[in-house]
Amino acid sequence: MNQNETKDPQNTAEVNEKLLDGEMFANMVRGGAAQLRSNAEEVNNLNVFPVPDGDTGDNMRMTIEGGVAALQGMDTDNLADVTKKMSQGMLLGARGNSGVILSQFFAGMTKGFAGHKKADAAVIGSALQEGVRYAYASVITPTEGTILTVARESVEYAVSRLDENSTIMTLFSDLIKEMYNSLQRTPELLAQLKEAGVIDSGGAGLFYIMQGFYKILRGEKVTDQMQPSQISAPAANLSSFGPDSEMTYGYCTELLIQLQNAKVDIDAFDPAVIIDFLKTVGDSIVCFKTDSIVKLHVHTLTPEKVLAFCRQYGEFLTLKIENMNVQHSETISDEKKAPKAEKPRVQKDFGTVAVASGDGIADLFRQLGVDAIVSGGQTQNPSAQDFLAAFEEVNAKHIFVFPNNGNIVMAANQAAGLWEKGEVHVIPSKDLGKGYAAISSMNFQSGDPEAITEMFTVAMDMVTTGYVCPSIRDAELNGVHIECGDFIGFVGKEMLVSEKDVLTAAQKLLAKMGGEEIYLITAFVGHDAAAEDVAALEAYVAETYPNAEFYTVDGGQDVYPFIFVVE
C-alpha cells in the first residue's frame, strides 16, 4: 500500500483548496471506487481463515459502485444533493458486513453535509465524524481492530489537526496518513488477525477508497476508472441457442430507471402505472420506487416494449436483458415458463425469504415452503436491493428472512429498515445449518410473529454446522497446522482439522463435532465433491455411527465440498 504517488501539478490547480463542491466529491467517489477496484483482490485475500471465500474487497467495491451508479446523470455541484444521491445508491447496493458498514459511514457523512452546497475542511471533518458514529451504530457489538477502528482513529487524528490554515488537501493528507498507520495496528487489537498474520480487510478496503479520494484531490490519474456498467459479464453459453432455436422462455429484463422531472412529477409518480403495463407483456414482475429511482424485473418476450414504455418517465441507469433459453439464473424467481398474464396479488399474512448458495439448497428450501429465494452466499453476498426485490415478490404483512450466512445478516437488516410495506423479521441464521433447522420448523398457525421468531430461535440452537474446504495458504490457527492445499474443517470461527484429503478431513471433523453423541447428520454435498468420496463417507458413517441417521442433500454449493448439519 504505497500512498506516495506522483503529483500532477497541472490538474492540482483545478482543485479548490478551501471548499469542496458536489462535482469534486462525485469525482472523488469515482476515484475511490476505481482505486478499490484495482486492489479488490488484495483485500479479498486478507482473510483470517485460509479458505477460498474472501469477498470483502468485492463486497465493498460493489457497494461503492452502487453509489457511483446513482450519480450517473446528475447535473449539479450541490454537495448535499450529490452526497444524498450517492448514499442512497450505496444503501441499496450494500453487500456483506463490510459493505453495510461502508454504506452507513457514507450515510453519516451525508447527514453531516446536509444543507451545505459546499464544505470547508471543518465541515468535512464534522461529516467524517458523523460517518464514524453511523458506522459504529450499525454494528450491535462493535469490534476494535476492524474497519471501525481504522475509520475512527484516522478521523480523530485528522480532525485534531484542523486549524484556521487547514485545507481540504491537508485534511485528507492527515486522514490517509493515519488510516494507513491504524491499519497496520489492527493485528495488535484483534487476536484472530495476529494469529492469521494479516491486517483487517475492511480497513484495507476503506483505506483504498480514501486513497482514491486523495489522489483525485491531488489531480492524479486513478487507473481502472470504468463505470459499473462497463464491467464484463460472464460469457453466455451460446451452444444452448442456435440459428434454428425457438424462443420459448423469453427475456429476463431488469432496469434501474432514474425518473426525470422533465417527464413526470417524481413525488406523485406511482409505479403501479408501470406494473399495470408489465402485466400485459410478461410475468414474474417486481417493480418498486425508492425516492426518484424505479427498479423493475420482468420476464417478457418483448423487452423492446418495456424499454419504450419506461422511457416515458425517465432514463436508464442500468439495463440487463438475458435470453432465458441461455440464462436460467434469475435474481428473485426461479420460474422458467413462457410469459403469461399475472394473477392479481393479495397481501398475505406471513411470507419467507431465504438466501441459498446452490441450486440443490434452493430447491430444498422451496420444498420446505420458502416463498422467495435470494441467490447468494459466501463469495456472492446479495445486496440490500436484492432483498427488497424479494420482499416485493413475497408481498406479505410479516416477512421472515433467513440470511444463512453471518456476512449477510447486516444487509438483510439494512433492507428490512428500508421496507415500508410490511414488517420484516430477520432471523439471524449465521450459517446454512441454522437456516435449514429454522426453515424446517416453519409453522405460522399461532399467528404471533414473536412466538414464530422464538420457534425459529429454538430450532437454530439445536444444530451445529461444520464446513470442509481446501486451504488457499499456509496458516496456524487454533493450534492446527495448515499447509496450502490441505482440506480443513471448522465450526464457526474455530479451526478443528487439516488433512491432505477431503474424506479424512470430513471424517475427523464429524468426530470433533460430537462423534458418538451425534444422532442426526445432514450432509450438503457441493458440486466439487466426488461421487466416490460421498459413497465412502456414507459407508464410514454407517460403520462408525450406527445409531445416527445420515442424509445427503445435493446442495450444489461452491467452495465447500461438504457442509455438515448435526444434532
Task: Describe this entry's structure for a reader.
By secondary structure, the protein is α+β, with helices and mostly antiparallel strands. It folds into four domains: 9-225, Alpha Horseshoe (Serine Threonine Protein Phosphatase 5, Tetratricopeptide repeat); 249-323, Alpha-Beta Plaits, CATH 3.30.70; 348-460, Phosphotransferase system, mannose-type IIA component (Rossmann fold, 3-Layer(aba) Sandwich), CATH 3.40.50; 464-566, Hypothetical Protein Tm841, Chain: A,domain 3 (2-Layer Sandwich). The protein has 19 helices and 18 strands. The strands form five sheets. It has a six-stranded mixed sheet, with helices on both faces. Strands 4-5-3-6 form a four-stranded antiparallel sheet. Helix 3 (56-71) packs parallel to helix 5. The longest helix is centred in the first third of the chain and has 23 residues, at 22-44. The chain is globular, with a radius of gyration of 25 Å. It starts with 8 loop residues before the first helix and ends with a strand. Mean pLDDT is 86; it is low at 2-13, 225-238 and 327-344.
If you average the pLDDT, what whole number results? 86
Q: Sum up the overall morphology in one term.
A: globular
CATH superfamily of the largest domain: DhaL domain
Percent in strands: 15-25%
The percent range for helix content is 40-55%
The major sheet is characterized as: 6 strands, mixed
Integer count of domains: 4
CATH class of the largest domain equals: Mainly Alpha
Class from secondary-structure proportions? alpha+beta
CATH topology type of the largest domain: Serine Threonine Protein Phosphatase 5, Tetratricopeptide repeat
Number of continuous helical runs: 19
- Per DSSP E runs of 2 or more residues, the count of β-strands stands at 18
CATH architecture assignment of the largest domain: Alpha Horseshoe
Strand order of the largest sheet: 15-14-11-18-16-17
Q: Which stretches are poorly predicted, pLDDT < 50 over at least 5 residues?
A: 2-13, 225-238, 327-344
Q: In whole angstroms, how far apart are the ends?
A: 46 Å
Rg is 25 Å
